[in-house]
Amino acid sequence: MNCAESRLFLHAYADAELDVANSRELERHLKSCAACSAAQKSMQSLKMAVRQSLLRYDAPDSLRKEVRRMARGSGDETRPHLLQSLRLWRSLAFGTTAVTLAAILLRPAGVSERDRILNEAVASHVRSLMVEHLTDVASSDQHTVKPWFNGKLDFAPVVTDFAAQGFPLVGGRLDYLNGRTVAALVYRRNKHFINVFIWPAANAGRGELAVENRRGYFVINHEAGGLHYCLVSDLNAEELAQLAKLFGQ
Ligand SMILES: [Zn+2]
After folding, report:
1. Handedness of CA 117, 191, 207, 184 (dihedral sign)
2. What integer pLDDT is reported at residue 148 of this predicted model?
3. Ligand 1 centroid, distance to 91 Cα (angstroms)
4. pLDDT tens digits along 120-175
5. CA of 92 to the centre of ligand 1 (A)
6. Using one digit for the tens of pLDDT, what is the confidence trace for 72-107?
7. What is the CA radius of gyration of the chain?
């Protein structure tokens, strides 16, 4: 199984709707592919978040009526629509297809791309601490962590141990943010862990730091040297900004 096939199957797999043979194939691929494995973990945490937030709705009457109306129709051309409606109704009524539901909920124009990225970054930070999957490569040696990313990303993250400045490098891992594989570097400041998500910058590097508080975590976005840095931690904003600045202005 290649990555494109794996991505196609991930949603069905997350909903336990994938047949056994393909599930085995996918599991084998996930073991050997860090990028797809990161995508799967991201999907799982989204599912968990939706489940925990009690986002369950009864199907509205209009949708029930529409399903009944289509069920009465006999033409073959209505079948795909009917199946889709039934699927949608089922997911809305029972909340079983959490990923589908999340996709619907996350689509409204009210949620900006920026909001979505920040929320995903905080969710990834929390998940990395909760499931004890902080690092794929645990090392304070930048010469070990940097080459580990080779061939796993389409860009080269800058990996520096800032122990001398009070931010020792803990390690790195692949993560999945904003629909792409990103590098996550993990630093420590006393007892606080800091995730630094890195991906190619959309704009030419602007040095200023954008600091925000999301659900009790500080998030700093910052672009430098053609890369976007998104730092997330429960560390205070001042010290987090010190680390952000170390990645360049
Ligand atoms: Zn893959």
Report:
1. negative
2. 93
3. 28
4. 898 888 888 876 678 888 888 888 999 999 988 989 998 999 999 999 999 999 98
5. 30
6. 765 544 455 555 655 555 555 554 455 554 554 444
7. 21
In sequence order, what DSSP letters do the residues of the chain get, joined into one string?
--HHHHHHHHHHHHTT-S-HHHHHHHHHHHHH-HHHHHHHHHHHHHHHHHHHTT---PPPHHHHHHHHHHHH---GGGHHHHHHHHHHHHHHHH---HHHHHHHHH-STTS-HHHHHHHHHHHHHHHHHHTT---SEE-S-HHHHHHHTTTTSSS------BGGGTB-EEEEEEEEETTEEEEEEEEEETTEEEEEEEEE-SSS-----EEEEETTEEEEEEEETTEEEEEEESS-HHHHHHHHHHT--
CA of 136 to the centre of ligand 1 (A): 16
Surrounding residues of ion ligand 1, Cβ less than 5 A: 3, 6, 33, 36
Q: What is the pLDDT of residue 13?
A: 87
pLDDT tens track for 34-81: 999 999 998 888 877 777 665 556 677 777 777 777 777 655 444 555
85-102: burial string, b at 16+ Cβ within 10 Å, e else: beebbebbeeeebbbbbb
Q: Residue 16: which pLDDT band, with cuts at 50, 70 and 90?
A: confident
Report the C-alpha gap between 49 and 107 in whole angstroms.
16
Q: What is the mean pLDDT of residues 197-213?
A: 81
- List the one residue out of 12, 8, 10, 7 whose CA is nearest residue 97: 12
Total-model pTM: 0.57
